[in-house]
Amino acid sequence: MRKILIFLAAMMLAAPVYAIDGNELLEKVDRNLNPETFEMYRKLINQEPDGSKKEFILYSAKKGKDKVVSLFLAPASEKGRSSLRVGENMWLYIPNVGKPIRITSLQSVTGGIFNNADIMRIDYSSEYNCETVEQSEGKFLLHLKAKTKTVAYDTVKMWVDDKNLLPSKIECYASSGMLIKTLYFKEIKDFGEGIVRPSVIETDSPLHKGYKSIMIFAKFKKRDLADEVFTLNYMSRVGDLR
């Protein structure tokens, strides 16, 4: 019996250990969050410490890994504005200005805690490399590092459910190691066409105590879109997609 136990222990030690490919896992998370090409509507709510709120309604469309366009439908003061992101390049179109204005990832077209990188979210795998993966208690913890210095967050910790491969929480850090904000992914919903993903994202920040921002997703569906939609010349016509 002792020889058998020694033999089994030796076999276990000799067995190969298969490491999880973090970047491959991150790409799967991206696809589970978003189809390759889609359109959707969102309500974005900024809540202040006194309980007051400001709400925005946006129509958005995305193609591939790094092209996103959005149109403001409400409030009336913002109606007709559009934003475009292609890779790390971002623009805001204001009708009475008449031409797109350059904006940055750390600014926010809506104010609140969500910045432009959050609102015009491209695939995480386009911006980050996964350096390590930990697994425990039904979760993967992905440690992500920005590919370039232009990315909004230098490092990101992403907790992913190991069954549905969807994020439950994301912590975003500056290069100094300071926590900038935390994103909470809630209320998984079946939108149809195989799209099953969180319908609510909430965020808070230790830098803005008492403030909170919320995104609520609706009418999330696949749609083929022409490349022309994601150009500066099309920004004044995004409403034609609806």
Output the helix-strand order: HHEEEEEEHHEEEEEEE
The Rg value, from CA coordinates, equals 21 Å
CATH fold-level assignment: outer membrane lipoprotein receptor (LolB), chain A
In the sheet with the most strands, the strands line up as: 6-5-4-3-2-1-13-12-11-10-9-8-7
Question: How would the global form be characterised?
Answer: globular
Q: How would you classify the helix and strand content by structural class? A: mainly beta
Estimated helix fraction = 10-25%
Just name the CATH architecture.
Clam
Instruction: Give the biggest beta sheet.
Output: 13 strands, antiparallel
Number of domains: 1
State mean pLDDT (0 to 100 scale).
Answer: 92
Q: Give a count of the beta strands, DSSP E runs of length 2 or more.
A: 13
- Unreliable stretches covering 5 or more consecutive residues: 7-18
Distance from N terminus to C terminus (CA atoms, Å) equals 73 Å
Count the helices. How many?
4
CATH class, named Mainly Beta
Which band does the percent of strand residues land in? over 45%
Q: Could you name the CATH homologous superfamily?
A: Lipoprotein localisation LolA/LolB/LppX
Keywords:
mainly beta; outer membrane lipoprotein receptor (LolB), chain A; 242 residues; single chain
Describe this protein's structure.
The model is unreliable at 7-18 (pLDDT under 50). The longest helix has 13 residues, at 2-14. This protein has four helices and 13 strands. The radius of gyration is 21 Å and the shape is globular. It has one domain (21-241): outer membrane lipoprotein receptor (LolB), chain A, CATH 2.50.20. With 242 residues, it is mostly beta strands. Strand 4 and strand 5 form a beta hairpin. 14% of the residues lie in helices and 45% in strands. The protein has a 13-stranded antiparallel beta sheet with strand order 6-5-4-3-2-1-13-12-11-10-9-8-7.
